[in-house]
């Protein structure tokens, strides 16, 4: 068998670029993650400046815990969007942040178990037949949010169809699609950012943008950090049930990213510094985000794409992107500019992004050759999808117990996989 020829990296993991190159390459990674990282807080009602700050803090923490051996960037996770919206609406933002904190503890437990028993037990607990449909649920569950943002305008608390909104959303969607399929090189890795910029320009021409907030904002402004354990009595059971089951998806996503990253860089990060260390680092980053009021974090495929294209694997470049994200989070006018992005622009981008999430779940089923002609696989995937997309929930009002749809779907999938006979056809 012919050995695979690897291209030599331009900058390896521990190599330092000169100052000018460091700034340029770091900003490139910042742009790659920016669109998606900012979109999550906008959708969930969290602060975009806090999301940027916790993204930077989380990445620096990750690099520290992994001993500077894994060139990865951490941004806002899409998997937690629905439970954050649900908890923020039915309870408060602090409850959502508490749930994210509890989900981060799962990472610590899993890291300890991997250290003790290896990783095979985790892969058996979360096979593609479970994780794939859950990812489909995450994408399809967010679809109504994207369409609502794309076409409805809220007037006096009432949502009304707005043709101008919808046309702006479609223009944004068209620009994003064009960038993702027609462009090459680095531009192909940032279609979300280019779509937002293009949609923003269209919105300005359509008269949907008011710059007064940017004019009034100070240049320096501390992000509005939110500490979940100070301002209210914790509702531990509700927060845990809504958020903790989602960790089974994001941990699986983390493992996938480590495998891809190992392939791109040509180093086995699963062994050195070890999956246990990288999972722990991801969990600690998520913990910091939850304690400061930012969306839960995850390693970003967008930035892995940049690594693959540029062949520049330096952790100093990834750390530089994190530093620049931190700096931007304290620039008041920049945060105000983000807040002026019209709703239909984010709706147009979200139509594609959420569809891609759902499609990636289907892709996992195909890539892993999950045979849906086998009754067992068909049952597991069907139950997960219908429970999740249908909005089923387990609720006992007398004891204030509530298990929302996505969590119920995830737990049901894990249990069905554990107890259904393997030879059931």
From TrEMBL:
It holds the Pfam family Xan_ur_permease. Its main location: membrane. The keyword Transport applies. The keyword Transmembrane applies. It is found in: Membrane. NCBIfam families: ncs2 (TIGR00801). It comes from the Bacteria. Belongs to the nucleobase:cation symporter-2 (NCS2) (TC 2.A.40) family. Keywords: Membrane, Transmembrane, Transmembrane helix, Transport. It is a multi-pass membrane protein. The chain crosses the membrane at residues 20-40, 46-65, 72-90, 96-114, 121-143, 163-183, 190-215, 235-253, 304-331, 343-366, 378-396, 403-420. It comes from Gemelliphila palaticanis. This is Uracil permease.
């Amino acid at each position: 068998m012919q050995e695979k020829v690897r291209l030599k990296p331009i900058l390896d993991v521990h190599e330092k670029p000169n100052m000018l190159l460091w700034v340029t390459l770091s900003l490139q990674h910042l742009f790659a993650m920016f669109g998606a990282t900012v979109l999550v807080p906008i959708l969930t009602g969290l602060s975009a400046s806090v999301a940027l700050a916790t993204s930077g803090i989380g990445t620096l923490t990750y690099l520290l815990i992994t001993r500077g051996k894994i060139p990865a960037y951490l941004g806002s996770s899409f998997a937690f969007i629905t439970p954050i919206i649900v908890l923020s609406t039915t309870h408060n933002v602090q409850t959502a942040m508490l749930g994210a904190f509890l989900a981060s503890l799962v990472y610590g437990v899993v890291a300890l178990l991997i250290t003790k028993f290896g990783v095979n037990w985790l892969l058996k607990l979360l096979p593609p037949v479970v994780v794939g449909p859950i990812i489909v649920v995450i994408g399809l569950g967010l679809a109504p949010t994207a369409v609502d943002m794309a076409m409805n305008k809220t007037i006096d608390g009432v949502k009304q169809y707005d043709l101008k909104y919808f046309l702006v959303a479609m223009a944004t969607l068209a620009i994003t699609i064009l960038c993702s399929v027609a462009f090459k090189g680095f531009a192909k890795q940032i279609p979300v950012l280019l779509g937002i910029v293009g949609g923003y320009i269209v919105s300005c021409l359509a008269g949907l943008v008011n710059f007064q907030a940017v004019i009034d904002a100070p240049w320096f402004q501390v992000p509005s950090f939110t500490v979940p354990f100070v301002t209210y009595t914790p509702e531990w059971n509700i927060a845990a049930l809504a958020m903790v089951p989602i960790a089974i998806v994001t941990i699986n996503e983390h493992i996938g990213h480590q495998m891809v990253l190992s392939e791109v860089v040509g180093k086995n990060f699963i062994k050195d510094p070890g999956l246990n260390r990288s999972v722990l680092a991801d969990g600690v980053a998520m913990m910091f985000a939850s304690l400061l009021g930012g969306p839960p974090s995850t390693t970003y495929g967008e930035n892995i794409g940049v690594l693959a294209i540029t062949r520049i694997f330096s952790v100093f470049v990834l750390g530089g992107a994190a530093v620049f994200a931190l700096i931007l989070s304290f620039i008041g006018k920049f945060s105000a500019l983000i807040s002026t992005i019209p709703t239909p622009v984010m709706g147009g981008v979200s139509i594609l992004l959420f569809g891609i999430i759902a499609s990636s779940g289907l892709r996992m089923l195909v890539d892993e050759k999950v045979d849906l002609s086998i009754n067992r696989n068909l049952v597991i995937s069907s139950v997960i999808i219908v429970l999740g997309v249908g909005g089923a929930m387990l609720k006992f009002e007398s004891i204030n117990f509530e298990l929302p749809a996505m969590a119920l779907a995830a737990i049901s999938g894990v249990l069905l996989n554990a107890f259904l006979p393997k030879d059931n056809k």
